[in-house]
Give the backbone structure.
Amino acid sequence: MNSDKSHHTTIPARILAWIKAFWFDVLGSPKGRKIMKKTAWITGITLTVVLISWIAFRGMLLDWAFKKAAEKLDRKGYSLVCKDKGFTYLFGVNLQGLSLNYKAANDTQPGKTVFACKELAVGLNVWKFWDIGLSGFETKEMSLNLINLPNYCNYCGLIGGDRKNNETQTKSSKDPIVSLFQQLESWIGKAPNHLEMTGTALSLTDTTGTIALNLPNTLYRNDAIQLQLKATSLKRVTTKDRKEHRRHRKNDQDTLPEITQKQIEFVLSGDLDKDDLTGHVNITPVKNQKYVSIPLVLNGLGFSKAEFEVTELGESFGAIHADLQGGFTGLQVDDERISDTLVQIDSAHGRFVCDVKDGFFELDSQSLVQINQIKANLFAQYQGGNNPKYALGIHMPRLRANDFFSSLPAGLFRNIGIPKASGSLEYRFQFAMEHEKPRDCVLESQMWPSKDFSIVEWGQVDPRIMNGNFTYTYWDKGEPVAQFEVGSGNGNFTPLESISKDLVRCVLRSEDPDFFHHQGFYMDAFRSSIAQNYRQKRFARGGSTISMQLVKNVFLGRRKTIARKVEEILLTWLMERRSLVSKNRMMEVYLNVIEWGPGIFGATEAAQFYFHKHPSELNLGECTFLASIIPMPKKVRWFLDSNGCVKSNNGHFRALKNRLLAKDSGSIDTTIFQVCLHPDAWNRLKGPAKKRETLEVIFDNLIEMGYPEDEMNMDGVDEVEPIIEPKKLPKH
């Protein structure tokens, strides 16, 4: 055992002994000192000769290199010009009046000067001669102007190379995302430690418009970075943009210009370690501004400060692993697709731990999002391949109910307001779907209130008003179209017990089969909607229950925004969870307020107009027809033949009829489904005084029928008029 220990400890001692012997016995001897002196002289003389040669001939080398580059560019149709060039210090190159011009451009064509720079200074790091890089990079008044239009491109000649080499490079066994990251990591690693740019302007123009970047001051030194950026987008409005705008416009005067302009301007400061790609940055407004506006991402998105940090970024087990955190202070969203009013969030921060590679993305469940006081863990996953798979999970740990409601973004709940509550809440959401089996998707959404949960004070809306008489207002495009009382004071109001049971049954089968059993949400309908929308790659079917439709109609209006949908879900949950309104009363109100045609509201008006009957006298076929037009009451004429009878290819009517027959086929006479409207109703629908349906209605209908949006021209279509005169319009 002692011999083993002696063997291990003598190896370093032996190496040290050899070094001492070489130093004292060889170099310490007169002969050794003479060798060292000669070596030092030879090395010094060699370096001096090399240095003198470099200083003497470097100007010629620079002229030769510039001439070779100019000749190569000349063959491609470009002229490279430099007013003055030379060296600064030992290995620094300075170019003044540098420009690259496109010779094919004449005076009438834009973009003759592709690149220009008043002064360009580059420092070379040659001490690592095996890996020469840049030690510094400085520019003054640099501009890059790229144009790509039909039959004219001022930079396409610069793009190219050996196609075989490009194809060889793309055929790699490595993951393309990992390879791209490694290449980016290599480029950043070779970036200069000192970079300073003043008066930089970049622009790209193509058939869609122009994107321009202005960087007045950019500085990167000793890992510290600071820059000011101004980005401007000038986008040409396309025919598709105009059609989409016409669908959502509020009035005829609301038109789009030929070119739309959006602009971003902010100051970025922080630190970046280019060796491990970690760092921390702050984004703040420029002077004399309170907010940073980012319309290029989302109309009306802005914030007072943004802060982001990359704590880990690198390759791990064949994927790119990242650990990021940060968020916004004073976040604002002013976009009509989100909300009719300005949405404000005091604080929105999060941490995101993710892994990415080709065909795979995973957001680890450690990821966390916090909006004001609301915290929620996130999980997301995507697996590509022949059968892509998707997964999403959200978990909000138990939180005081009042903290939850007070943390909801201001402006997001302009209709119902923010209630005050006691107790606590916990929420969990899970979703999973395979590409080949969308109908088998997993969808779970559950909010768990504590036993002592209750609403202490309602906001602007109290669902309990539906338990008595109340005034209902029908809104269309932000304007009140009809207003009437729901209750005994209205002669057209019909109690539930006086409405045909067949109508109730048909409406349930059509809109919400599980209405009397669920608590506001029918998950099977949501799953079916997701599957259908995914297969058709568009929003073809909704999953709203009768409870949700009722909340929307009575309290929220018809504007299609994300905010309105969130309000709808929240108010439905509160109403159903606390059983504030009975199911029978909800069904009664629903049948008395929904629209059954232009200007036709409630079962009484619908039965009288279409069939000259009281709601209690309707047969099963007539009830099937009325229930089938609930999703699109203004399109009723599209589903009737020239005699005013229901067409055999009416998909909604046929589907509902088949559901009824599948349930009660033995007791139903199928001839009852041969439904024709009363002649008076048909004459009023098709009469000469009746104008064609609105542009919006026809547009939506053609999309549902499968026509491509870019081939439709809806100009010149007249507006729809209500069938029943608007005698119930509000006095104002």
Q: What stands out?
A: The mean pLDDT is 82. Residues 30-75 form the longest helix (46 residues).
